[in-house]
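[job 0412] stage=complex_fold ligand=pantoate status=START
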Amino acid sequence: MQTFVTRQEIIEWRQQMRGDQKQIGFVPTMGALHQGHLALIKRACSENAEVVVSIFVNPKQFNQSADLQAYPRMLEADLALLNGLENLVIFAPDEEEMYPKDLPFSPMPLGRIGELLEGAHRPGHFEGVVHVVHHLFALIQPQKAYFGQKDFQQLAIIRLLNTYYGFGIDIIGCETVRDADGLAMSSRNLRLNAQERQNALAISRALHYVSNNTGKYPLDKVKQEARSIIEQAGLAIEYLEIVDPLTLENRSQWQQEQVCCVAAICGEVRLIDNMLCESVL
Ligand code: PAF
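[job 0412] stage=complex_fold status=DONE, emitting C-alpha cells
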C-alpha cells in the first residue's frame, strides 16, 4: 500500500497506471474509517485493478467550525485498518495540496435538489462537497467511484456533478452498512457516549417503522409516529421527510417507492440516515 500526500505524486502514479492500462476505482473519505468504508473499499478492490482511497477532512463542507474541530481524525489507525489490502493507494493531502491557490474552479449550480433536506439545514455543505469531489475526480480520473447510500442526497448530487463536469465516471452507490442493532455506521458515532448511542437507535427504529407501514396508513400519520419514536428517545429532529427517490421533493401520498430521510441531533452529534420504503399495496 502506497501513501501519497502531494498532487504531483498522484499525477505521476496516474500516468503510470494509464500506461499500464489499469482500471482505477476511487473511494473518497474523510477518514475515521469504519466497516462501512471498508465495505466500499473492498468492493472497489474487487472491481478494479487499482484503488485510490482519499482521506481528507474537507473544511469547505462544514458549515459550523465546532463540527469541523470535533470531526475525528485518526490517520494512523486508518492506515492500519487498510494495511494488507492489495493494489491500494492512499491519498492524504493537506489543505494546501487539496486546494492550491492557482487551481481554477467554477462552481456548479446545485438547483432545487441542493435546497432540500441537508441543503436547507447545512448551507454551503454541498457546495463544499462538490468542490472537493470535483478536484479529486479531476486528479485521480477513476473509471469507477464508490459512495455510501447513507448520504443519499450527496449521492444524487455527485451524479449531477459527474454529468455537469462531464467526468463520465461510473458512480456506484453502495448499501448502508449497519451495526447489528441497526445503527447506521458513521465516523460521527465515535463521538456518542454509551447512553447516546443507545438513544440513537431510535433513528433506525423510526425508519423501519416507516418502511413496515408504507402504504398501510396515511403518510402523514406514519410520519408523525416516526417523529415521536425519535423524540421519545430524547433526540432533536432537524428533519424527517418522506421524499421522491429522484427529486427528493416531499411526498404527500404513498407511491411505489419513496425514501424516508432523517437528520437528528443526539447529544451534540448530528446524525443522518435514510431508508427506501416500498409500498406493499
Ligand atoms: O461522504 C464523505 O465522507 C464526504 O462528503 C466526501 C465525499 C469524502 C467529500 O469530502
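The CA atoms of residues 46 and 245 lie 28 Å apart.
[job 0412] exit 0
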